Amino acid sequence: MQPIIEAYPDTSIVLLHSSYPYTREAGYLTSVYKNVYLDFGEVFPFLSGDGQRAVIRQVLELAPTNKILWSTDGHWWPESYYLASVQARYALYEVLSDSVRRDELKKEQAIEIVQNALFHNANRIYNLGLEPNSNIL
Q1: Closest Cα partner for 66 from 137, 121, 14, 124?
Q2: For 1-137, where are the E strands, in sequence order?
Q3: C-alpha atoms less than 13 angstroms from C-alpha of 8 in its C-beta half-sphere
Q4: For 33-84, what is each residue's pLDDT tens digit?
Q5: Pairing relation of β-strands 36-39 and 13-15?
């Protein structure tokens, strides 16, 4: 991957599906190259809850939080979109609340990570031009 990334430094490269099972390696690439981003979809709902939390922890180990994004990767059945949304939010909550309890993050930092991962980063990277709707919370 590195030769391709280096050959196209002005092209945004989004690593999909958490690059599972190579999530740590994807986190490294995301941290080293300015044009690489990491989408941590696909593992929801396909991995167990423990597996989902492990992937999120691996994403957060190295990948800058302004370069991670999430997608449902739902397909075939409408329920897969819903289930992926619920599971991803729950897994993010569990991982980040653990970090807040251990004083590794402040609550405001955890909230910002979630907002960026679930909306702002994809909105920026894909030039969507969407405005967040805080009324739906």
Answers
A1: 121
A2: 13-15, 36-39, 68-69
A3: 9
A4: 999 999 998 888 889 999 999 999 999 999 999 999 998 877 778 888 899 9
A5: parallel
Tokens of 125: 């990277």
Q: Give the burial class of 83: count Cβ atoms within 10 A of its Cβ; 0-12 exposed, 13-18 middle, 19 or more buried.
A: middle
Strands 68-69 and 13-15, sheet pairing: unpaired
- The rounded Cα 32 to chain-centroid distance in angstroms is 17
Record the pTM. Answer: 0.92
Single out the residue of 120, 43, 137 nearest to residue 83, CA to CA: 43
